[in-house]
Amino acid sequence: MALTGGPAPGAGRGSVPGGAALGPPGGPADVLAALGRSWTWMLASAVATFVPGIILLVWPDTTLHVLAVLIGLYLLVTGAFRFVWVFGREEQGERLPGLLLAVLYVLAGVLCLRNPLQTIAALSLIVGVVWLVSGMLTLFTALASRDLPHRAVVLGAALLAVVAGIVVLALPAESARALTRLLGLWLVLLGLVEAAVALAWRSALRRSGIGSHGPASTD
């Protein structure tokens, strides 16, 4: 889950959030950086969290194998979103937590997709640890970045992830149905928070005269 509000909007019309100058992309890193600073990318990340939650709530009787596949795919996709988001950060110190989270999500996704680990206890442990670590690192980033836009929302999202991780670890589900309902509920809540952050970031971009991919045209 990409729960940060992105870098602060630049003051000039010739800059993008974080103060980076606009211009033709110089390479793959520049393309990823522009994508990571886009509010639409943040919203897509929210959808990637929200949709699996809805599926789990609507289909609570899914088998353990299907549940593991859904969770594994969710973690892999979220890891990809976080990896791209890292390139959108201007400060090197803000990139390390995001990179660590991206690696954590990808590794956890791979573990969920492995057949020997498809047990209720294993899935609960993997998801609980991922959410707990993710929430703590996001909380650290929000507290360390005092100029972070919509800092209060990001702090709330981080605390929500920490609580979700603690609940999953402290109250392990005794059946696939119970675990499905619990994970589905938390994914929906986290997806809604991520969507709120993305829309708030869009508002910040518009107030600064910058669109999702650059400054507004004067034609």
UniProtKB/TrEMBL annotation:
Q: How is this protein annotated for GO cellular component? A: plasma membrane
**InterPro entries per record:** Acid_resist_chaperone_HdeD, DUF308_memb
Signal peptide boundaries: none
The domain of life is Bacteria
Which species is the source of this protein?
A: Streptomyces toyocaensis
The UniProt keywords, alphabetically, are: Membrane, Transmembrane, Transmembrane helix
Segments traversing the membrane: 39-59, 65-87, 99-117, 123-145, 152-171, 183-201
Which Pfam families does the protein's record reference? Answer: DUF308
Extract the coiled-coil ranges from the record: none
Protein name (Swiss-Prot/TrEMBL)? Membrane protein
Q: Does the keyword Flavoprotein apply?
A: no
